[in-house]
């Protein structure tokens, strides 16, 4: 128990230091920043949707500085080719030999800006590195650095010249976070910070330490009843009638895959550790459900005609499927006494 408690406090303390440094530069966006830390701890990728100018690039760049990791940004365009992403073989005329030039995916934090503007060949190259953490160039496999996080952005208001992401690639993203405009008070602080002296960001941890924290994340306890609840929520998107939400059947043409259940459990563990606990509570699972499921739901024509959004469907599922009660009583008592 002492080992688990020490791991819990260690992870929470380290992430608090990282968050403190990031928030010295990034104002507001608390939900977005929390989801970024959850993705890092759980080893998942993040899909971010928001209009330009909401500090998406600044967040990842600042985060890379705090963990002393490498950061690359790729601006996805229609003329992008896979070699621009993963690298290629270059012929040296002096030596008469080929050498491998690795692409920008070989970094700890990769920002894929406007990911839906690249064609299918580029998306397939990114799909391999997201899933397998490796790149194959001329028959040779190259592993990307660990930890490895892809944060991709999409612009919701400009769809001309874009390519819809393949369902297989969308499913690889652990969460989809919708970033909104800051409040007037937050925007006032943003303008003051940008128009005055730049804030220096300190490196508070290392990539090796972050990899250790990711391993500790697997030690966070989650009750089997909460795992069953996560599975039931995901199953409700595939078979609403069986899960007591039959009125949603005509709104869904395809539900979420089992990868959604896995990401929901892994994300809940990471969120519990960020909140200073060594066990998962029902609210940890519930809080992550919209971010984990919203990009995995394929809506039917009836849903589009009725202007029904994935978030509305998820809200109805959560309303009809409440979380289990009286879970983790023994663990909560032990945690309180400690």
Report the span from N to C terminus. Answer: 9 Å
In the CATH hierarchy, the architecture of the largest domain is: 3-Layer(aba) Sandwich
Q: What is the strand arrangement across the widest sheet?
A: 2-5-8-1-9
Low-confidence stretches: none
Taken from the alpha-carbon principal axes, the silhouette is globular
Helical content stands at: 40-55%
CATH fold-level assignment of the largest domain: Rossmann fold
| Average predicted confidence as pLDDT | 83
Main sheet characteristics: 5 strands, parallel
Number of E-state strands = 11
SS-derived structural category = alpha/beta
Q: What string gives the helices and strands in order?
A: HHEHEHEEEHEEEHEHHHEHHEHHH
- The CATH first-level class of the largest domain comes to Alpha Beta
Radius of gyration: 21 Å
Domain ATPase AAA-3: 45-175
Family: Belongs to the MoxR family.
Protein name: ATPase
GO molecular function, one term: ATP hydrolysis activity
């Amino acid at each position: 128990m002492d080992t688990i408690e020490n791991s819990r406090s260690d992870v929470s303390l380290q992430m608090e230091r990282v968050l403190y440094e990031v928030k010295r530069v990034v104002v507001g966006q608390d939900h977005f920043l929390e989801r970024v830390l959850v993705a890092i701890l759980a080893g998942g990728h993040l899909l971010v949707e928001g209009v330009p100018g909401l500090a998406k690039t600044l967040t990842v760049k600042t985060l890379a500085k705090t963990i002393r990791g490498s950061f690359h940004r790729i601006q996805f365009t229609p003329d992008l080719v896979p070699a621009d992403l993963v690298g290629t073989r270059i012929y040296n005329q002096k030596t008469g030999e080929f050498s491998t030039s690795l692409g920008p995916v070989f970094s700890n934090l990769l920002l894929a800006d406007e990911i839906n503007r690249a064609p299918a060949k580029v998306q397939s190259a990114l799909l391999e590195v997201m899933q397998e953490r490796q790149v194959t160039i001329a028959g040779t496999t190259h592993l990307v650095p660990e930890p490895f996080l892809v944060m991709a952005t999409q612009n919701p208001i400009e769809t001309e010249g874009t390519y819809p992401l393949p369902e297989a690639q969308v499913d690889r993203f652990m969460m989809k976070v919708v970033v909104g405009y800051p409040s007037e008070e937050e925007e006032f602080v943003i303008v003051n910070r940008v128009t005055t002296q730049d804030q220096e960001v300190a490196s508070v941890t290392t990539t090796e330490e972050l990899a250790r924290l990711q391993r500790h994340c697997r030690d966070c306890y989650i009750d089997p009843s909460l795992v069953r609840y996560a599975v039931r929520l995901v199953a409700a998107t595939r078979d609403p009638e069986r899960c007591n939400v039959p009125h949603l059947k005509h709104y869904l043409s395809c539900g979420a895959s089992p990868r959604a259940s896995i990401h929901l459990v892994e994300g809940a563990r990471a969120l519990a550790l960020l909140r200073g606990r060594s066990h998962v509570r029902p609210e940890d699972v519930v809080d992550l459900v919209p971010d984990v499921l919203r990009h995995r739901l394929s809506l039917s024509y009836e849903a589009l005609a009725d202007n029904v959004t994935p978030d509305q469907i998820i809200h109805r599922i959560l309303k009809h499927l409440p979380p289990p009660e009286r879970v983790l009583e023994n663990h909560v008592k032990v945690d309180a006494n400690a």
